[in-house]
Amino acid sequence: MQSTSNTVALFGDGRLSSGEMFTPPFTIHAIAKTDITNIRLYYGNGMVILNWELNPHELRIHDPRTGGGFGVAGQGFLTVNEWHDLRWTIDPRGSVLVVDGVERARSTGDYSTLQSVVGVGGSRGSTVTLKMFDVEPGSPSREK
Questions:
Q1: Please, are residues 84 and 33 in contact by the beta-carbon 8 Å criterion?
Q2: Domain range annotation of the chain
Q3: Is the pLDDT reported for residue 143 higher than 60?
């Protein structure tokens, strides 16, 4: 990990984690960029993977409770070396991923009793640079 006054760079499998435990509802909010692949947001046993190294156009989602994963075709790609606004909202009944103001995925699950740290990072040789990383309490409406 390398830090400047305005950014933090995470190399390879580097990860930045909160020291605090969180219980839904909350939103993981990051402004980040990658040099090639793999921006990952973590919570519990789960994660979301943007620019996945095996298929950058497929968004990978792993359930925060079970860790079970699935793909969402055409929703994973981020332009490299450009800042992106990432928001993964986790509430007691599911989660929503919004990238640059556009919803990319929505899933359901019982997260009401989960309590875990949150994190952000890269993988497989990527460099993920963070301009901002925060956890915002509460969650927007899940009505759609």
A1: yes
A2: 2-137
A3: no
pLDDT in tens, 121-132: 999 889 999 999
Q: Nearest-CA neighbor of 91 among 40, 17, 142?
A: 142
Q: Using the Cα atoms of residue 59, residue 61, residue 52 and residue 31 in order, give the sign of their dihedral.
A: positive
Q: Contact at 8 Å (CB) between 82 and 91? A: no
Give the predicted TM-score (pTM) of the model: 0.90
Mean pLDDT of 85-95: 97
Give the per-residue pLDDT at 6. Answer: 87
H, E, C per residue of 38-98? CEEEEECCEEEEECCCCCCCCEEEECCCCCCEEEECCCCCCCCCCCEEEEEEEECCEEEEE
Give the burial class of 85: count Cβ atoms within 10 A of its Cβ; 0-12 exposed, 13-18 middle, 19 or more buried. middle
Q: Which CATH architecture has domain 2-137?
A: Sandwich (2.60)
Cis peptide before 25 (omega within 30 of 0): yes
Mean pLDDT across the stretch 92-119?
97
